[in-house]
User: Which sequence fits this backbone?
């Protein structure tokens, strides 16, 4: 079973703080990892993806990947109330064709 | 603008009925996917298709059927064999590493 695990939250952070979202995966064959943001009742929007160990930065977002520990994280700097949403972590192996999703972490950014 | 169009946005099904959800893309993507999302849950894969006239079962294919007669279109039929179809259904397409989602169809059994 290819599991992607996330803490369901909610994770509450004050406006302007750093939000840290975490994800672990069980399939060592997983090669690519994706972070999606999903507002209530809407479809997921891609934030970023990562496939190399280390950090990848895009604006206020940084994805971190540690394949040895099978761990992926997403940092959101200067969190805004508009960042309040559910964040979905997903993995894909090189031999796989579809994304394997975690259940998501609910983030609440309080003014 | 290129994208994926799902219709209808809301769909109500009576017990014992088959219903078909539409998914059309103009991105020229080869691969297309159907996912189901239940409240508080992640997305679970129903079916996927890598090329026209070929498709594969995902993790929860029972009670669903699909076709891929055209590259642009990947309709999903929810049959009467699906005992608990109330959910949010998402269609996606992929080219390379990029997955694009449609806006979803919310199906409710009445």
Assistant:
């Amino acid at each position: 079973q290819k599991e992607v695990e996330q803490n369901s939250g909610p994770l509450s952070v004050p406006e302007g703080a750093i939000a840290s979202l975490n994800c672990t995966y069980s399939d060592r064959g997983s090669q690519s990892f994706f972070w999606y943001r999903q507002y209530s009742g809407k479809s997921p929007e891609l934030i970023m993806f990562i496939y190399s160990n280390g950090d990848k930065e895009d604006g206020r977002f940084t994805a971190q990947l540690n394949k040895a520990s099978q761990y992926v994280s997403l940092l959101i700097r200067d969190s805004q109330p508009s960042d309040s949403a559910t964040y979905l972590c997903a993995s894909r192996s090189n031999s796989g064709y579809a994304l394997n999703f975690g259940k998501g972490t609910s983030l609440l950014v309080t003014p | 603008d290129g994208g994926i169009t799902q219709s209808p946005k809301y769909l109500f099904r009576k017990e014992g009925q088959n219903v078909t959800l539409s998914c059309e893309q103009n991105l020229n993507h080869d691969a297309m996917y159907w996912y189901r999302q239940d409240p508080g849950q992640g997305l679970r894969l129903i079916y996927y298709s890598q090329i026209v006239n070929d498709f594969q079962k995902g993790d929860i294919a029972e009670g669903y059927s699909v076709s891929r007669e055209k590259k642009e279109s990947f309709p999903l039929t929810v049959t009467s064999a699906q005992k608990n179809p109330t959910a949010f259904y998402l269609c996606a397409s992929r080219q390379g590493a990029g997955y694009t989602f449609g806006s979803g169809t919310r199906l409710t059994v009445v």
